[in-house]
Amino acid sequence: MVDKSKENKKISIKINGESTEFEEEIRVHDWKLGKAQTAAGEEKLEDQGFEWILPDETPQPPKEFKKINYVSGKKKKKRQSFKNPFHDSVNLLMSIIGAVVVGAVLGFGTLKVITNTDGGTVPAATLQDDTAADVTGGTAAAAPVQLKEFSTSVLQGGVFSSQESMTAMQDTLTSKGITSASIEKDGQWFLMLGVSADVETAKVLGDDMKGNGVEVYAKDFQLNAKEIKASNEEKSFLEKANGLFAILAEESSNGVVNGKTNESAAGSIESSLKEIEGIKVGQEPIVQMKESIVNAATQTLSVKTSEDAVKVQGELLGYLELYSSLQ
């Protein structure tokens, strides 16, 4: 067989219509020859081989550690404690004393509670009033309050420029059994011998005084408005007491003239008296005023003679004098 590859070794190419021939040697590789060379290389590697060298790692047993106890050369001596033979006795004695003291305190407290209980139960209202009481006598603290003008008809015994002159005249009247009151106003001293609801009744009262040799003048008298220090309850008392004063002045003056009072006024007097008695006051002048107005109201309700009415007039004069001195 002829190898065709060897016969056709020329290549013809036409360029611009002209034919040109080229010769090229074409190599043909034999794949069987390559396979034989590869097998020969593998056999050579198998002949040479590779030897692995590993380190000697034979396990060693762990070392044994022994505990070493260190003992000092000197052995400490154990300290012996001294036991007090009286220790237990002292503790017992202190326990007994403590028990006695505690028992005595508890006993004293119990006795005090029992004693207070025997004294009677204090009403809750009384306790509340005592707690809120002021040092002035059981009322709230005083504060500035404004008093209105106070007017009444009076039987005046004279006007004096000094208190000494007025006091001398007052002593003279007292020796004759005539009750009076001194009132300071605008730098002068007024001597009052009676009060009434109106000037006409006051004049009638004055006729009886003139018979005893006393110069008197019936007139309307007014105390100016002023500011004083008082509690709210004391202010309420003064307002109600001044209203009751007008009623008592009328009834007592009629009682002096006629020997009796108007029975129709008893209801008003009793209701006003009940209200006033329930008002708590603390300042000493106001306490005395309350006593005077209460006495005057009580006596007016039981007037039977002119002499009874004169006593009421004396209480009202005392109230008027105290009222004028309030500050």
Automatic annotation (TrEMBL):
<keyword id="KW-0472">Membrane</keyword>
<keyword id="KW-0812">Transmembrane</keyword>
<keyword id="KW-1133">Transmembrane helix</keyword>
<protein>
    <recommendedName>
        <fullName>SPOR domain-containing protein</fullName>
    </recommendedName>
</protein>
<feature type="transmembrane region" description="Helical">
    <location>
        <begin position="90"/>
        <end position="111"/>
    </location>
</feature>
